[in-house]
Amino acid sequence: MPVSYTPPIRDMQFVLHELLHATDTLRALPAHAEVDVDTVNAILEEGGKFAAGVVLPLNLPGDAQGCRLDRDTHAVTTPDGFADAYRQYVEGGWPSLSCDPEHGGQGLPHTLNQCFYEMLNSAGQAWTMYPGLSHGAYEALHAHGTEAQKKLYLPRLTSGEWTGTMCLTEPHCGTDLGLLRTKAEPVGDGTYRITGQKIFISAGEHDMAANIIHLVLARLPDAPAGSKGISLFVVPKFHASADGTLGERNAIHCAALEHKMGIHGNSTCQMVLDGAIGTLVGEPHKGLAAMFVMMNAARLGVGCQSLGLTEVAYQNAVAYAKDRIQMRALTGPKAPDQAADPILVHPDVRKMLLTARAFAEGGRALLCHTALRLDVALASDDEDEKQSAADEVALLTPIVKAFLTDNGWLATSHCQQVFGGHGYIHEWGMEQFVRDARINMIYEGTNTIQSLDLLGRKVLLDNGKKLKALGKTVQEFIEDAGIREDMQEFVNPLADLGDKVSKLTMEIGMKAMGNPDEVGAAAVDYLRVVGHLVFAYLWARMAQVALDRQAAGDTDPFYTAKLHTARFYFARLLPETASLIRSARSGSGALMAMDAALF
Amino acid sequence: MPVSYTPPIRDMQFVLHELLHATDTLRALPAHAEVDVDTVNAILEEGGKFAAGVVLPLNLPGDAQGCRLDRDTHAVTTPDGFADAYRQYVEGGWPSLSCDPEHGGQGLPHTLNQCFYEMLNSAGQAWTMYPGLSHGAYEALHAHGTEAQKKLYLPRLTSGEWTGTMCLTEPHCGTDLGLLRTKAEPVGDGTYRITGQKIFISAGEHDMAANIIHLVLARLPDAPAGSKGISLFVVPKFHASADGTLGERNAIHCAALEHKMGIHGNSTCQMVLDGAIGTLVGEPHKGLAAMFVMMNAARLGVGCQSLGLTEVAYQNAVAYAKDRIQMRALTGPKAPDQAADPILVHPDVRKMLLTARAFAEGGRALLCHTALRLDVALASDDEDEKQSAADEVALLTPIVKAFLTDNGWLATSHCQQVFGGHGYIHEWGMEQFVRDARINMIYEGTNTIQSLDLLGRKVLLDNGKKLKALGKTVQEFIEDAGIREDMQEFVNPLADLGDKVSKLTMEIGMKAMGNPDEVGAAAVDYLRVVGHLVFAYLWARMAQVALDRQAAGDTDPFYTAKLHTARFYFARLLPETASLIRSARSGSGALMAMDAALF
User: Fold this and answer.
1) Is A571 among the domain residues?
2) What are A349-369's pLDDT values in tens digits?
3) Which A residues 480-519 touch B at CB under 8 Å?
4) I want to staple A429 with a disulfide (CB 3.0 to 4.6 A). Which of A3, B143, B520, B552 is the partner?
């Protein structure tokens, strides 16, 4: 049984059109005034065909084959078919979907690009990272590049003719970029000579595009120590004249490929800069701020990777659970004509599947909601609306990154478990999803860092302003829906959790004033609690849509399934908050008391 | 920084001598009357040297190299050094440690062998499976073999000259062995001609021993359908005369090696039996019962594998967390002379490490306790004591298997996370622990099957008799320790959880009478709750020992660390039971309501 994937178009349409009414929101933005439901649906359809038809077949063989480095030429060969799929991707115009029309983009909303990327990630995370990384470089140059940089790079990143990377990490520093050592010395002609070593550079070298545009963090000679002395440079693999004609090879090359747990099809490179020539992006010493433009988009992208893996793992585990016969149902034979029942009859198999399903559908709702708010934040002409949308995106970004990737790890592992021993075997594809999903909890800021970003920076630093705004939205929904008898089962636990989050936030805030370690001790549990609050809110809203459709006489079984999954979420997944809150409240004492020497 | 491992001798001694007073228990058994503390300690020391010195260096390269099959000769070559390490293992007399002296064994207690195997598993699970599988074959033949079978096979399995396998699974049946199709036809001379295909046969073919003794499940021509028509056969790779001289090659061979997520150093074989000649073990059609002798021991062995991985992952993550500098402590610089603080200052890094530590130390206590009860069950001359020990082992076996392997998956993943991006890179060794740990939740009965075994068979089927016996032991401890002020922090949550387990068990039992799916819906959560009850009991007892030593003036920091870890367990890990109980109580409705077609 080969790995299969059916793009979840129906559920995306449910989220976009029935839950979020996304086109209404988008059309109120001048940049997206012409977006309509038909355009959205057509792009979802075509995007899904590309993902399932072109990318999916490469995923399993690409994992087995991996990338190869020629140590003499420093050239990297990607797995068979990867470059050809990328060619088709470029020819189809996919790279330009949400790019700025000023530089050749189609100017479509991020919300749509997000749905497309979910499907690409389901079909193959390793392949999708090649075009995916370009977006980060595009965003940083779009926001901070000089006119000349924009004119040279943006149209070619937009078309996909060239790809981009982010070169941040060094062997001794990942989380703590303040420690980085790569040096940039002014040549005197406005360019800089950059020397250093970067590691973990995804898509750092490959055979899929004519040029690779590296965004590199480095220190100027007069740079202050620490994170306030870091500048951002653009360093192309090949120099290019203003018209884009490629010139000499720049002194940046791939010295080695990392041997990784997963995403074997992506080239994770150790990059050596040996006096490579680059130009400054943005202000000197302000590189970290410029880089965070890329990082925030990338963090949403990582959540999207795990969403994609969760969905494809779920689909394949369901197919297996319907096909595989083993034992009888505890309540007696369900398929008496066969030697045993399909394993879907067993409650715990269903529990594992429904966990993945609820995480996938909840994650899709959360990501689409966040992307829509991002579109508003970027394109609204109302400053208040712009700011409140940006605030909500800022609050939700660490949740999307950490909550969805932790969920993706659990879900892919559950789906692997459904396959029994076959789940451990490469050819069935499930163990690859687990291995691929594992990196998402680590890169673009570990999930611990996300939790500190949420609790420390996004919640406590502004005295809970952003959280209260979200709470107000939730509260309004509770008040509206709370008068409906058929919504009690969803609204009551949501309201209860909302109260608990308020109390927990205040409690940690108070304790943190006396001891900053209280933030670090509670943050990871806290993020999952708030993640569940957002999920519970979205699941209650989805249930309401389904109930309304049923009340209106719609017999589409889609709504029946949506309600079952919502009830499962509230019965089986939301209760995790009980433990998380107890653990978060237990404080830092039990963690900090032990002397380092005793570990 | 290469992967390192220091055998946790001190903690093993604490568990064996200070917590369990194992030699007192053992010396009361006629077979172990001469076991003393010095012997135990000497074997732990020597065993630890073998594991860390001989096995550990092979683990990472063995994973990268894997096993190779010659498709012409069907010969399997194990990774470089594996066969030589096995030779040293045999020369050191290690295979015979807990084997019957009647067949050349040293007759030492299982408890000691269990500690030795923990160290082997820390050093390399893939290598350790080669000798480990022999134990299962040994046990089945020891319990059910004819005199001739025993005489031929047991001395050579005991010496390690030959190894053994368990051939159960077929492509279409793993959990449900009643479906198996391999056929055994009587030749007429007391032997059988066996034909069929087996998959997932660990150590099924290799270059480490002169002969491989396969224990094979198959159907006789007159066999009833289902699980009551399965017989057990012994099928040697090479025929051998009664004196052990090897003769012709038998018609059983390795047709392919599986490509797995982990344990790459172990040969997981597809075995083809093409009229292979074997002899019956035990009664016709009673093969499954005979096989369960092996399975129960193997399940404890799988728990031990995850314990080993948890311990070695913890040690390496601690070393990294002390060495790696990144960011400052939230409470201000702790290593002002360095550019950043060691990451061990961060609360969540400590939380991940302490989780692994509490799982390792709790798991060690549980496994040693269970192994000691197994020694009593096997060697006591008091029938009541024998039975009550056997009952407790029966109850604890699924908990050891599922709870420790789920914990091992969490713990190795946490330890990988401590390494940040380096955790995803093969050379650092951490991702291998995660991949290796993953199989332990699947094989020897998936963890779902373990949970059904616990709740359905071990608890509900005898109206809670075995569980009540354990509860009585816990209750007696609570009454004794509960009068001590310094034990309140441990005894109170233990007593509370004990009450909750009683209520939960009764509630599920009542519901299950009306609907058997209630068992399947609650079982996985239930097993983890009971796992925590056992852990809380053992952690409280360990804390008491540490408090007593401190009260007696002992200033060994070992006891300080033990108390910190106990407090961490109660503050941060035990609270998981709050969610588990809510989830378990939510019933089967949310799982079973959705039509299969809607998945």
Assistant:
1) yes
2) 999 999 999 999 999 999 999
3) 515-517, 519
4) A3
